[in-house]
Amino acid sequence: xGGGRALxxxxxxxxxxxxxxxxAEVDLRPPGGVRARVLVSTRFGxxxxxxxxxxxxxxxxxxxxxxxxxTALDRRTAAAPGYAQAPPSVxxxxxxxxDGLLLExxxxxxxxxxxxxxxxxxxxxxxxxxxxxRTRGAAVEDVFALSGPGATLGLARRxxxxxxxxxxxxxT
Length: 172
What we know:
The chain has one domain (about 1-165). It is about 35% helix and about 30% strand. It is built from five helices and eight strands. It has helices at about 5-15, 50-65, 65-80, 115-125, 155-160, and strands at about 20-25, 35-40, 85, 90-95, 100-110, 125-135, 140-145, 165. The strands form two sheets. A six-stranded antiparallel sheet has the order 2-1-6-7-5-4. Strands 3-8 form a two-stranded parallel sheet.
């Protein structure tokens, strides 16, 4: 519900707990509410206690990411490499199933990326109708079906600004 706010917060909570979204299909369109299939993996260390994760998810969806989780997410994001191995790409195309557009993001994965992209999309006034997330090694291929007044070509530039730049050139 909310066109993606709950999805953004959920992705942030998972990342703050050190969980990587490996594969997901999330449908936010009414009338069925949210239908989701999400496969996560622990990057390093012990698995997260599901009771704590559930509690943090509820708290964050109700009132935003709590301070300690925001700090954990910021730490994980800061520890990630500052550049991508390959140049990222953001592709936009018209949807065939409804008015709006498809936004395809291909880049190097990093903690909190999914949440940041969804937050940028919703802040621009677009609604996330559905999303497919695929993580292949260190790379992600995410496709977002967007609608609403913010679902414009200019949104691609906004999302590109969130992505790590390609690897710096090596001096010769």
